[in-house]
Design a protein that fits this description.
Elements: H1 12-23, H2 29-42, H3 60-76, H4 83-109, H5 113-120, H6 130-154, H7 159-164
């Protein structure tokens, strides 16, 4: 690959930051500049205009935990590994795990085919003939009507209840329908 030299003066503070960044790595200044310039133009596979900024304020404790973990990860990974890269990795892992849990929950909530049969009342037993089922329904209905009529007869209030309510037979209530 053919290369070209690029020269330019930068502020001393920025030069010191570059030196500090390179101390823990085996990168040279040309490799570092190539990586930074490439990242600037390619923005790690994301078009510059398509990238979005996500900014949040966090507690001091969380900020310190993040920085400590970042330093440990940075030591274990060769090459350039920025805080931005680490944060994007953490967020991506958390979102992937949440999506996976959601899919598992949906699978658990979806009833199996045999469960659907139980819910709908269908069974594998032979179905009754429609005529038989209709005959049974008529019998059940007439039995229900008889029971209701008997219960209504049993529910006639007694004289003591009527007196307790201040009602007497003269007020229009008769226990025996034949008395009417």
């Amino acid at each position: 690959m053919e290369t070209k030299n690029i020269c330019g003066k930068i502020p001393i503070e920025l030069h010191e930051k570059v030196r500090q960044e390179l101390e823990g790595t085996e990168m040279t200044i040309p490799q570092f500049l190539t990586a930074v310039i490439t990242e600037h133009f390619e923005s790690k596979g994301v078009e510059k205009m398509a990238a979005r900024t996500l900014a949040v304020q966090v507690s001091e404790e969380l900020f310190i935990r993040f920085n400590e973990r970042y330093e440990k990860e940075k030591q274990q990974r060769p090459g350039r590994f920025s805080k931005k890269d680490f944060l994007i990795e953490i967020i991506t892992q958390a979102l992937d795990a949440a999506d996976e849990r959601e899919l598992e929950e949906q699978e658990e909530d979806t009833p199996a085919e045999e469960d659907l049969d139980i819910i709908s009342g269908e069974t594998d037993d032979e179905e009754q003939e429609p005529e038989e089922a209709a005959g049974e329904a008529e019998t059940d209905e007439s039995e229900d009507e008889d029971e209701i009529a008997e219960e209504a007869e049993d529910e006639q209030p007694s004289e003591s209840i009527m007196e307790g309510l201040g009602m007497e037979e003269e007020e229009g209530y008769r226990e025996d329908p034949e008395d009417l």
